[in-house]
Amino acid sequence: MSKLRVFAALTVSTSLLVSGCTSSDEPSAVETTTTTPTSGNIRTDDVQAALDALVDAGSVAAVAQVRDGESTWSGAAGLVERGGTEAASAEDEVRIASVTKSMVATVVLQLVDEGKLQLDQPVDELLPGLLPKPVTVRQLLDHTSGVPDYLTGFDSAADIASRSGDVVTDDELIDAALALPWPTDPGSAFVYSNTNYVLLGRIAADLDGKSIGQSLQDRIFDPLEMADTTYPTDAAIADDALHGYVLENGTYTDVTDFDASIWSSGAAVVSTVGDLNTFFRGLFDGTLIPQNLIDAMQVLTPTGYGLGLLLGGDACNPGSGELVFGQRGNGFGYRTFAFSSPDGQRQVSLAWTAAAPNPAVDPLEQPATEALIAGLASTCPA
Question: Is the pLDDT higher at 27 or at 325?
């Protein structure tokens, strides 16, 4: 079986359909590669080559961190900014988009563990009168609620650029979604919707008595010492963060400065590849939630989506049925993969900074998938 086939579950309809705007700046002639020394037995040559290939294919920067037990390797290729000279680093911040969903799902499951809600509890008991159809918390988590997706109308690079300064509230996002026709009845099918996680953020805020951003900080970022991870509610991102670009028809548009309110609790988090690995290790080793809820998150479904997680085949044992779990982020100008063995011991997080308006036809999807597979394969037993 081809190694590319083992990640088929990662490339189906779980993508955010995002769009971009155009620009005419020329590619930089500067090519750079930066790595940290190999720690332990991780085999890194193929990983670095894959990052270089991703930049050669059109990404401005590609960064990754691989972990295997206590061994860690970080690598990067490309530049912080087009036209600049500063080399990208795996320590640089990026917008992680829908990898945020795994974090919000973890907060929800912590609240389940605390007895403050139940997975099969009707949303109407938690947000009375908001939804016109009977939906459960579980259906929000695994995208089987049928709730329409508010994130529409970003079909070109121009659409994205024109909305970069828009400030919206969660109420406005929910209202926009509920004005649309429901694609399916609750519980009948998998239909990806960012609105599901806006609703989960609202539920968590009500039960935790604080904003979802503060809950993430208190429950995940601080305990795991994820010092480079934040939940912005505006366009804030570090001055030295990697710049994100919409890639359309061979042109690049810088969309680094983009108000995060459009993403809300479905995709707003800013982080680093190292912090993403820290998160998934803390999630899967039992630090954040007990094993019974880890098992609930890692449920196998025909769609490849569990409770806030995607699953894929393990590159170390293709065709064996062994899996990795994590999430992908398809944002405006940024893309992210973060996957881990079920116990959190073997991990790869990858981010790159150019994205087509529609991830389903993104020319960088295949080289990025190859980089992810190379990262996982680098941790396979010799």
Answer: 325
Average the pLDDT over 159-168 and give the result: 83
Lowest mean pLDDT among 135-144, 199-208, 360-369: 360-369
* Alpha carbons 278 and 179: distance in angstroms, whole number: 39
Q: What is the pLDDT of residue 97?
A: 97
Tell me, what's the pLDDT at 35? 54
**pLDDT per position as a tens digit, 34-47:** 555 455 578 888 99
Give the three-class secondary structure for 348: strand
DSSP letter at 12 equals S
Q: 312-329 pLDDT, tens per residue?
A: 999 987 777 789 999 999
Distance CA 297, CA 318 (A): 22
Q: Active-site residue numbers?
A: 98
**Residue 341 corresponds to which tokens in the numbers above?**
């063995």
Neighbours of 82 (CB within 10 A): 20
| Strand, coil or helix: 111 | helix
Distance, in Å, from the CA atom of 164 to the CA atom of 269, rounded to the nearest integer, reads 16
Question: Can you give the pLDDT at residue 40?
Answer: 59
* Secondary structure, 3-state, 134-201: CCEHHHHHCCCCCCCCCCCCCCCHHHHHHCCCCCCCHHHHHHHHHCCCCCCCCCCCCCCCCHHHHHHH
Domain ranges of the chain: 3-377
Angle between helices 170-178 and 195-208 (to 10 degrees): 140
Asked if residues 94 and 116 have their Cβ atoms less than 8 Å apart, the reply is no
Best CA proximity match to 333, nearest among 264, 261, 260? 260
Q: Cβ distance 327 to 280 under 8 Å?
A: no
CATH superfamily of 3-377: DD-peptidase/beta-lactamase superfamily (3.40.710.10)
Please, how many CA atoms are within 13 Å of residue 96, restricted to the half-sphere of its CB? 33
CA distance 343 to 49: 27
Rounded to an integer, what distance in angstroms lies between the CA atom of residue 300 and that of residue 84? 44
Phi, psi of 324 (to 5 degrees): -120, 155
